[in-house]
Each structure stands twice: as C-alpha cells, then as structure tokens.
Amino acid sequence: MALEGVQLKATKEVEDFDIDDIDKILSQLTAEEIDELNGDFDPDNSFLPPSQRMKPQTSKDPTGPYKREKLLAFLEKKAKNEKDWEQMKPYVKETKGKVYERKEEPKAAIHEDETVQTEWDDILSEATEEELVDLAAVLGFHGMLNQTQYYASLESEDISHTGSFSDGGHAKAQALKMVPAEPPNNTDVEESIKQIKANDAKLKTLNLNNIKNISNERQTEIVEGLKTNTCLETLEMANVAMTDKVASVIPDVLKANKTLKVLSLESNFISGETLVEIVKAINENQVLQELRFANQKPEALGNKVEMKLLKLIEANTSLLRFGIHFEFPEPRVRIHDKIQNNNDLLRKKRLEDGSKSQS
C-alpha cells in the first residue's frame, strides 16, 4: 500500500506522528483494507457503537428462523460423523505421591531379669480370687471391678459373691428383681351403690379404679346417686372404660351435689366437649377442689376446647388441682398460674383464720 504525500518518521515515539494526516491516510485505503482495520478495534471501546466494536463473525446468508430441534439434530449428527481425537499418550494407571504406610508401634520389651522378688509374691500367688477382688476394691483399682462390685465397695458390702476377675472388668447387669403386681381392686360395686343411695355417713371415699367389668348402667347409678348424697367427698373412677354416655350425666350431678371435693376420671374414653360441660357445672357451686382428667382417648383436646377450659378455670376460685395434658402453651401456662393463685388464696385464708382464733 503506497501513501502519497504522507511523511512519517521512522521512530517509535508517538509524538512524532502528525495527527492531521489521519484523514488523508484513510482516504487512500481500499475497502478490504478498511475492513481489516476495523477488525483490529478494541471491542471494549465505549466510544464506538455496539454494532461497530467487532466485525461480523460470518459472511454466510441466514438459513431461516431459529429451530431448536433442528439445531440439536444437526449437532448430534455432526458429532457422530466426526472422528474422535487421537490420544497422544495411551492411558496408564499411575500412583502419584507417596503411598501411606502405617508405622509399626514399637513393642515394649520385657526384661525378666529385672523383676524384683518381694515378700508379697507368695501371698498373692496363694490368694483366692475372692480375696483378690476384695483387695482391688480396698486399693481403689476400680478398673478391675465390674459394675456390681464397684457399687458394693462404695456401700461397704461384701463383694466376694458379686463376681470374679474372669469377667474382664466389664459392666455386668444385676439380676432382675421381680416386683409383685398390684393387688386387684376388690371393692364391691353393688354394695357401694347401696351405700351411696342410703347416704351412708361412713362412706367418705369410694375407689373404683381399674375395675373393668362395671357396666354403663352401674356407672350411671353410681353417678346419679351423688345427687342426694351429702357424705361422699372423694370419687375415683379411673380406668373403668367410662364413655360420654355416662360422663354426660356428671354435669347435672355436680350442680346438685355440694360435698364432693375430689373427682378422678383418668384413663377413660371421655371427649373434650363433655369435660367442658363438667367444668361449667363445677363453677356453679365452687366446691370441687381436685379434678383429674388425664390420659383420655382421644388424648388431644384441640385448641378450641383448651381455650374454653381456660376461660372456665380462670372464673373458678375453688379448684386446687387440675390433672390434664394441654397441647398448646398458652392455656397450659395460664391455667397453671390460676391454680397456683387459688392455692395462695387458700393459704392466706388459713393463716387469717389461725390468727383470729389465737386472738
């Protein structure tokens, strides 16, 4: 390429180049030379528009709109037809670095010549195994004793019968101690019904817990007999398979009875709605002091029932114990505080009565 009328000095310094000759130089370039010059521009030059920062990558005409399936099929076909690259070096399994080798621990050398004979050697060799166990306990060698021997030594008991060194000092479970089963409840149900109906003054507490063969009719007779009874103070009917059919009678009975102080209905089949009605009846006379209602089937009461119980218990001033499991924390905490407040009020009243009697 010949440039006429342009004088450039053969030097590397930029100051020697005449900037006014750029237009004259560009006017003498051909179209191919201008395209080649445009391809040398920096694509990050912010002074050029984006369409001019890089020359076109291809001069082919477009083949049509973009079709993804057609493009994937073409690339797959092309990949299958092309030959794989030849490996310059065949694969050989190699282990790089040092191979870990576990160091062998040096064994302690035992020198039999260095043993010292003492006067205790003959005594220990002739001692029985029971005597050695006692000696280990006295010297505090607890690692040589099993669990039973160790606790026996702490309690200053004879440990010769608790085992030997043949156990290897491992923990050993003690022999299972059989606990006798609780005696069955032999309360005469028929006789109890007669005493309730006759308002027997000797019957202060009636325990019918764990009696499974009480029919619904007999349970209803026991509950309804409390309407006219003025002597019974404690009624325990836990785990007697009581259902809502019998428990639905209890609210009317509690409204009429003013002497019952303890009512236990644990481990039965009473619903939460029936419990709400029972607590409503308790609030009328404000006499009952203890109500146990835990472990029902179903056990979960639900948030609606628990909030109803919360409002009823907060209006009660006589209840001192309330045995039940709450699922949600708000009714559990607030009812606990209310029961504690009732106990505090009773304690203050008892102190005031005591001070008045002394004066």
Can you describe this structure?
The protein is mostly helical. It is 39% helix and 4% strand. It contains 13 helices and five strands. The protein has helices spanning 22-27, 31-38, 68-81, 120-126, 129-139, 147-154, 189-197, 216-224, 244-247, 250-256, 272-285, 303-314, 329-358; strands at residues 205-207, 234-236, 262-264, 290-292, 321-323. Strands 1-2-3-4-5 form a five-stranded parallel sheet, with no helix packed on it. Helix 10 (250-256) runs parallel beside helix 11 and helix 11 (272-285) runs parallel beside helix 12 (303-314). The termini are far apart.
Brief digest:
The chain is mainly alpha-helical and 359 residues long.
Main sheet record: 5 strands, parallel
- End-to-end Cα distance, whole Å, is 133 Å
Helix content: 25-40%
Strand order of the largest sheet: 1-2-3-4-5
Order of helices and strands: HHHHHHHEHEHHEHEHEH
Shape, principal axes of CA atoms: flat
Strand content: under 5%
How would you describe the oligomerization state of the chains in this entry? single chain
Radius of gyration: 50 Å
pLDDT averaged over residues: 81
Stretches with pLDDT under 50, minimum 5 residues: 1-14
User: What would you call the structural class?
Assistant: mainly alpha
Q: What is the β-strand count? A: 5
